[in-house]
Amino acid sequence: MRTLSLGHSPDADDLFMYYAIKFGWVSNPEIHFQSSALDIETLNIKALGGELDISAISFGVYPLLAQEQCLLRTGVSFGVGYGPKLIKLKGKRLRKNFRVALSGTHTTNAMLFKIAYPEARIVYKNFLEIENAVLQGEVDAGVLIHESILTFNERLEVEREIWEIWHTLNGNANLPLPLGGMCLRRSIPLNVAIMCEELLTKAVKVALENKPLLSSMLQERNLIRVDSKQLETYLNLYANGDSISLSEKQLEAINALFKIGYDHKIYSQILEVKDCLIPIDYKEFRNS
Predict the structure, then answer these.
(1) Quick check: 266 and 61 in contact, CB under 8 A?
(2) Cα–Cα distance between 55 and 245 in angstroms, integer?
(3) 109: Cβ–Cβ under 8 A, 6 or more apart, which residues?
(4) pLDDT tens track of the chain, all 288 residues?
(5) What SS3 state is found at 217?
(6) Rounded to whole angstroms, how far apart are CA atoms 108 and 117?
(7) Alpha-carbon separation of residue 132 from 30, 97, 153, 221 (angstroms)
(8) Distance CA 120, CA 74 (A)
(9) What residues contact residue 261 under an 8 Å CB cut-off, 6+ apart?
(10) Strand partners, 184
């Protein structure tokens, strides 16, 4: 059995999509995952350093690590008319150079925010600390992500949706906002990489087929930060049927994100996302 290191975030959607493997509902006799739960920016940095075999990442960081990592088709989260929120104290007017807290320099929302607000003064914080930083006046505004978008202090209001920035930059209201996906080290043998993608894809399918049971098991183990109603809302947003395998529209959206990054000199080249995926036709060719 081959043991591979896998990183996912401690957020409800990642836990939900992975824990069918953790609970032993889905397995492969040839692969064992040694998993760790880390915040998304830590995972982005580890992926850049090649520290994990498989990792959840922000789509915004992928072009920076494309030579060493390939994208997986499964375990993806997109926003469809929603996503991270730029929040501030109610009634507060933001200047051009307002102070803002972001959850990490390599996140998709940070990339889009920097393009829309080039004069903002940015500090980076763990996403769980951003709301309080705004409430206490440490920063003028902050971008909330993950479960934090569902409910926040009544003293706060939304200044702008990151979705609106995305829509403005890509000019196509029909494209979903690419937020998070997964990558795998290219040095892993191709047949093993294909098995990993198949296993992780099956885990998402099984999770969705057993959503009430898996959700309750995660809550019973105090792995989730929200109540059952909020959990259902959050999973409907980010861990749903669109998370199983990348669709053509999702692929188009990722390409649009990559082009935006290139046009704004964040990336040195434009990537075609289909060239970044595991070539699964190898399995048929190998067995033919």
Answers:
(1) no
(2) 16
(3) 60, 83, 84, 102, 103, 143, 145, 162, 179
(4) 899 999 999 889 999 999 999 999 999 999 999 999 999 999 999 999 999 999 999 999 999 999 999 999 999 999 998 999 999 999 999 999 999 999 999 999 999 999 999 999 999 998 889 999 999 999 999 999 988 898 899 999 999 999 999 999 998 778 999 999 999 999 999 999 999 999 999 999 999 999 999 999 999 999 988 888 999 999 999 999 999 999 999 999 999 999 999 999 999 999 999 999 999 876 665 654
(5) helix
(6) 14
(7) 45, 20, 9, 26
(8) 34
(9) 60, 63, 111, 267
(10) 54, 70
Long-range contacts of 91-98 (CB under 8 A, 24+ apart): 91/157, 92/140, 92/141, 94/140, 94/141, 94/159, 95/140, 96/120, 97/121, 98/140, 98/141
Mention every residue, 6+ apart, whose C-beta is less than 8 A from residue 213.
none
> Position of tokens 């591979």?
4
In one-letter notation, the amino acid at residue 60 is G
The identity of residue 282, as a single letter, is Y
What is the residue whose two structure tokens read 């997986």? 72
Residue in the structure block whose two tokens are 């209201």? 173
Q: Find all residues with CB under 8 Å of 156, minimum gap 6, and list them.
A: 87, 88, 89, 90, 131, 134, 135
Q: Say which amino acid occupies 106.
A: H
Structure tokens at 250: 């999702």
